[in-house]
Amino acid sequence: MGKGKSRKEKDTAKRGERAEGARGTGMKKDIAAVLLFTVGLALFLALVSFSSQDRLFLDRGLPPAGNLCGKVGHYAALGLYGVLGFSALVLPIAVCTGAIRLFRDAPRRLTAVAAAAYAVLTLAVATLAQLFLGRTELASFPAGGAVGRVLCRNAEALFGAVGTALVVGACAVVALILAADLDVVAAAAAVGRAMRALGAFLFHQTREAVDRHREAVAELREAEAAEKARRAEEEAADEEARARAAVALAAGAVEVAAEEGPAGDDDPAWARELNTAPLPPEEPKEKPRRKKKEDACEARPLVVVAPAEAAAPAEEPAAAAEPAANAPAAEPARPEIVLSAAMQEKKKRKKEDEKEEPSFAYTQSGAVFTLPALGLLDKPEVVEKEVDEGGLQRTAGIIVATLKTHGVEGVIRHIRPGPVVTLYEFSPVAGVKLAKIENLDKELTMALSATRIRIIAPIPGKGVVGIEVPNRDRATVFLKDVLESETFAHAGGLLPLALGKNIEGIPYCVDLQRMPHLLIAGTTGSGKSVGLNTMILSMLYRQAPDQVRMIMVDPKMTELSIYEDIPHLLLPVVTDPQKATRALQWAVDEMERRTQILADTGSKDLKSYNAKVEKQRAQGTLFEEAELAPRPKKLVVVDVAQGETEEEAEARLAREAVDAAGGTAAPGRPASEVFAARDAASMGEPPPEFEPIEASAEYEDPTAPPPDDPVAARDQKKQPQKLPYIVVIIDELADLMMTAPREVEISLARLAQKARATGIHLMVATQRPSTDVVTGMIKNNFPARITFRLASRHDSATIINGPGAESLLGDGDMLVLTATQPVTRVQGAFVSEGEIERVVSFLKEQGRPVYDPSILKARDSGEGAGRGEDEDDPVYDQAVDLVSRMEEVSVSKLQREMRLGYNKAAKIIERMEREGVVGPPNGVKPRQVLVRPIGEARAETNV
Ligand SMILES: Nc1ncnc2c1ncn2[C@@H]1O[C@H](COP(=O)(O)OP(=O)(O)OP(=O)(O)O)[C@@H](O)[C@H]1O
Questions:
Q1: What pLDDT, in 10s, does the model give residues 266-296?
Q2: How far is CA 455 from the centre of its chain?
Q3: Residues with CB under 6 A from ligand 1
Q4: Relative to the CA of 533, which ligand 1 atom is closest?
Q5: Counting CB atoms within 10 angstroms of each CB, which of 399, 499, 654, 815 has the fewest?
Q6: Residue ranges of region Disordered (predicted)?
Q7: pLDDT value at position 539?
């Protein structure tokens, strides 16, 4: 029994010992867990409060200012970050989790797995941190620490960057699941719940904000309505008061009038008006609205439009008619919004639209030629938009703020809205370099979210910097709009070009005569051809074909062929570059011929020549009479073709003179001057000398073929004729320059230099403004230039001597440079093909041109005669016949008289010199003629 008890006791004692032991182990574990947790927490605090700046304090023996765990914490964190980088933060989590598990008495196996998982997680985070943040400078230590750097380098070598991210990322997630004993589904659900809660919160907040905004708008509208009602009441009261005052005054005036008789001259105008008109007219309803706008404008940049002060008083007739006593009270001082000239013109035009379209029938020349009517052009209805003042003010604010950010201070004084761009006039403070503003164009473009902006620093003559910002809604300018404007109607000159509207929306026209030649450039699609068409149509709308003739060169064969066969053309539209070269040479010859005519008649230019011709025609006199008067001659032309001898010819003329004695002698012509046309006798026609001066068309026709008999033509004494203007239009200069660069360059330069006075003008367009096309020689001779959008600043400098064209918007946006005006931005007028076709067929209905194809023939084949080549040349014989009647002759005189090309005339004169008909060259003076007509020579010998 004692043995058994002792075993029982032993068992109990053992159980008690085990329980004791277990209690002791549990306590130890708890203590270890607490210590571990503390270490983990301290580590966490040391790591999150680490600051590299603390080193400065520690170096001076001071405690660190930032680290919550003092010196030890700082160094521990420094070491851990250095080794593990950001993954050091996993450590305190691992330690704290381990502490909690220890506390919960978790199985040892699980704790070991968790520890291993945390270790893997730490290394994975270090690698990922190095991979993603290694190149940034987020912290004072490497993102992945030394460990992360090594692991990342090796992993990248094995898997590449993306592979490393995937593999290491997967390891990290698995390690996290194991370490934290994470239920992935539960975690995802928790994240989802959090997102939903956040969404609901944001939605609620937004709805509240929208409701608040709506309420505020409704309140504002109510307040506005109340304000409007109040103003309406005030105005009604004012109106009534004014009417009462007027009636009282009228009554007074009538009483005075009854006492003193009719109002004398001293009475104020309003008093006199009151006698007949007791009540002032109702004020326009628009007035109060404008007042409101003006009030709103105070302390902001003034939205101006253009100087139109002169028109302002005319806009306020009612105010002017009001009694003086009312005036001061009615007009408090306030900022003024001036209506733009363009807007005024629009208003005016609206009224004029109601009038009938004026008739443009042209009746100066013999035949009536009707100029095309404006009705042939389209003018789509455009809804006029109100100026968005708020938007303009906002843009002005952005400009000022952006410039300020970049160190340029200043204010915007005026805003000038136009159809396509709006000009903001910026006044910088003193000391700002303008080049700095110019260089901020890209910054401003970005800040304004604009496509392109243009900076004009400074605007010539204004002392401000112009910033042109494209409008969001771009208006189209229609050609009809410009052609029917006052500006075009009053544009002087014979060759007005309606280009479009300037940036204030005012129609912009130039005169080609004054320019006097125009170079046009623009990349493909920039609006160059449309621009050229509007210029051509402007001239066609102004001038009849006998006043202005055109040569059109279109090597691209696309743009100008639409004008084929209009009566203004001198030639069919030239598409072959070779022929174009000849056409240019013809223009040079024509210029030489005209220069001689001007010199012979002592005319300064074509305008004064045409004026003289007009006078001569009115008086029935001739230019030549003055020259011929001192040396009357008896001229006999022997009809050698019919085998006539000199005696027979003289006898014939005597007979004819007797026959004609009873006929009409030409008024004012010397009786001794007797002419005989070469074939007159054989044709049985009355000799021309007895006819009155033949009335000819007012203008010379350059396409008329040369006279069959120049001698007879010269002697026929036709009335002088005016010379038409000639406009040469070339659509693609580059194509011509590729074919015959030297000839084209020389012809263009000669024309550009000298043709102005002779009424020949050039319009040359190109899409390649490179220096091999627009050569120095061409450029120097074309002072007036228009550029549409160009590809680069460099191209812009070639055309307008500065930047700007590269910032244009395309679609007809252009810069115009003339010799007298600074660069002006213009929105080109638009004209469609349909409109051009309508105008062209209207012109063609009135007549077709008669072309002179010889202009385009190759020089040598057309004009033949070389040195001793063509001894039987009938033209030479005619020339000798003609020259023998002159005292002196020059190449151009012969050219003019016989309607020859310059080269041909020069060759004839050379041959005449060789054959002793004319003397040697005499400097700039004409050559002396050494022969006499046959009859005259015989008469002299007999004497
Ligand atoms: N003044 C304008 N207003 C509105 N749109 C325009 C204007 N001018 C041109 N455009 C538009 O730009 C397009 C191209 O114009 P255009 O044919 O004149 O260019 P281009 O410079 O002559 O090109 P290319 O050299 O290739 O012929 C036109 O079809 C038209 O839609």
A1: 333 333 333 333 333 444 433 333 333 334 3
A2: 14
A3: 476, 522, 524-530, 767, 811-812, 828-830
A4: 18
A5: 654
A6: 1-22, 256-298, 314-335, 698-718, 854-874
A7: 92
